[in-house]
């Protein structure tokens, strides 16, 4: 699955709940009808194993209901007279058990016990099911199409003519297959699936496998029968009934790739086809295993909560993650689409072919898929410069991991809300950074051949953390080394002291295996240090070359001085990654109270002559995030001085930017960020230019295309007066491009006066889709006067929000973190804590509450430590 996380630049953390035991002791569990339920655990018993599902599904897009039947071939490993499996919100009409010859074991319809708090049902068999025999369960069931984003759910879209059309699509990961069919809904239970879908004549049906045949069954209905699938976990099953249009192509190895979208967005599908063809061919070579299905579909679903989902052979996407309009989408939009496709395609091997045994190791799926985004794009699309973004991934991970409330990569997760919460920065981003470090250690070739070994060994089956380490390399105890990274939380801190030619290396926080420390001494690579004697006296030492290691480095006084001086005199002596990582480490140490803010601000003094976008945006990003926090605290003098300083100091960079789409991707990204900042800070030349572009755009009634990278900034400025705002809202309603709409929305939200109206529209879900509500709330909260409004809205509508975005889901996490982390005073902290206390029953198991409140504590601490320093430093610089 691809996360769609709100990017929070400032201080973040992740909290770890110890496994809360949700198993009640045996015997106490009563089913809904009052009879004792035969199984007391959240996890299913392991002695009944599904082998093959034969599924028939019949959705009705008019009545918005579906019904279906499933015949599950099972292996019985221990004698028993009941079967427990998952089912959630389904009405079970009949249940029977058949023997090997498909003869009923009883003429009576069997009773089904339901145990909703574990999302399980139990079926009693009239005869003992004997170990070693083959049986079939047969169930008929039905339910309304789900209203949210999980299970078999309803999605809608509007045509240009204003007609609303309905489709039905699935999203099962991690625990929602049980909402669409009764099943053994745990990743270890891999089985083959044979799917049939009934539909009307104006729709098509899609599933994981290619269509085998279509049968007309009377009453104007058709039944599409799909080929039998390979063995896979239930969360990867998918089916869709819709009226989309498509475009197809063939890979060199004969895989048919098809991109689907709503008919009027068909012209936005072509880039995705090209990217999917090239990336699939890359992975087949890289993994040295052919993609095992005959086809791969990529489909843009109008209502989608995550970024995308890797269902085997039928990957699903948010429209913004798949559709690309060359006239409207920006360079960043293109990079995003390419990365998401790279992610989902990597999952076809990592996740689909080899699956983690249980959700505690979800990082094996997500850390790998996140890392392969970078490996594949670097190879296939070097011009997109994806490596510029890799450090951000690790910086994001460190932000969370640096607080007490982080968690180890492999952590316990039992119930659905805990499992949902595993899909977080730790699994994705820290996972990817650890793998990057490992790849540097093993060499590219060693890493790749180890992965190939691992995939071959565990294909169509499941693996654990240690299975990966055991596969990667023979003669080194990699397990022991890697456990220090995957089984403990936290970011290691390495300290360096230099005395003459001797370097003393120390470790704090999470001790790590020291072989991973590499560093640059005047361009000489060394490793395995502790106390180290250099061959000659040197001027400076920089550890963690290119930040290939997942740790932070703290130098002694002289060390920081030497590096600050080096950057000032000749910053190109260090790579751009080294420069960005120095800036990052310094500000991280300020937050931790280990380095004074002065030192960090002096370090970035050299940025005036920086030309690379990564260190430049890194330094600017810190200043901007301090500004946002101080602005919300209404500290007028510092707010004013900091703004003046930033505008003066970065003036050359700002003035250099053109209002166009020229240049390389990295130039374009810099332009997008820098001009957005300049206009946000009311820099007159920026406002003038944007206003001018906005007016010509309005005069042409939207016919001229604005430069895509700056269009959001142009809308933002245009929205500042009432008629401009109203025009954008009208355009929002009719736009056929989701990336454009999200730019309109950012602009609309910048006007405080209309925030209430927009939040209401987001809640209502008609003009602004419910899927966009979490980011809408976050955008409001970022606004200098919006954070109270956003928080009040969240409190007032909490119950409705949780209904739309279940506890543990990305949606609710983004809402909580996005609003709460804007706060930075003790009164606000108390207010937040009181609210969560008032709903403790609901949220006591959520990590994200601790994440959010610990962030506020960090903000408070940061201000109390650094505000005066900042004030004085600015006064000195501006005089
Ligand atoms: C669904 O219900 C309708 C009406 O009760 C019935 O005709 C149809 O056969 C059912 N379909 C399935 C798949 O059970
Ligand atoms: C199933 O059978 C195995 C081997 O006979 C036994 O070890 C195990 O305890 C049994 N499990 C249950 C739940 O009865
Ligand atoms: C859906 O239900 C309506 C009304 O009952 C019926 O006319 C239509 O044929 C059904 N469509 C499908 C695909 O079952
Ligand atoms: C089930 O899937 C496996 C591969 O995972 C395949 O070899 C086997 O043929 C499939 N079973 C059926 C009945 O098609
Ligand atoms: C690929 O699949 C699409 C969708 O099923 C189909 O329309 C197209 O004909 C197929 N292409 C080839 C070359 O088989
Ligand atoms: C860190 O968290 C644990 C529980 O998660 C707590 O017991 C401990 O006091 C915390 N340490 C600090 C320094 O806050
Ligand atoms: C550093 O060393 C590498 C390889 O040893 C060499 O290619 C590179 O030019 C050197 N860089 C500098 C700045 O000396
Ligand atoms: C700056 O450093 C680079 C790389 O070490 C070197 O090639 C260059 O000559 C240096 N320039 C100055 C002015 O010292
Ligand atoms: Zn994923």
Automatic annotation (TrEMBL):
Catalytic residues in the record: 344
Required co-factors: Zn(2+)
InterPro entries given in the database record: Aminopeptidase_N-like_N, Aminopeptidase_N-like_N_sf, ERAP1-like_C_dom, M1_APN-typ, Peptidase_M1, Peptidase_M1_aminopeptidases, Peptidase_M1_dom, Peptidase_M4/M1_CTD_sf
Localization per record: Membrane
GO cellular-component term (any): cytoplasm
Record-level GO BP terms: peptide catabolic process; proteolysis
Membrane topology designation: Single-pass type II membrane protein
Keywords: Aminopeptidase, Glycoprotein, Hydrolase, Membrane, Metal-binding, Metalloprotease, Protease, Signal, Signal-anchor, Transmembrane, Transmembrane helix, Zinc
Matching Pfam families: ERAP1_C, Peptidase_M1, Peptidase_M1_N
Record note on cofactor: Binds 1 zinc ion per subunit.
Site positions per UniProt: Transition state stabilizer: 428
Chain ranges of the Peptidase M1 membrane alanine aminopeptidase domain: 271-485
Annotated residues for binding of Zn(2+): 343, 347, 366
Residues of the Aminopeptidase N-like N-terminal domain: 49-236
Listed GO MF terms: metalloaminopeptidase activity; peptide binding; zinc ion binding
Enzyme nomenclature, EC number: 3.4.11.-
Signal peptide: 1-19
Location of the ERAP1-like C-terminal domain: 540-857
UniProt family annotation: Belongs to the peptidase M1 family.
Protein name, UniProt field: Aminopeptidase
Biological source species: Cyprinus carpio (Common carp)
Gene: LOC109064799
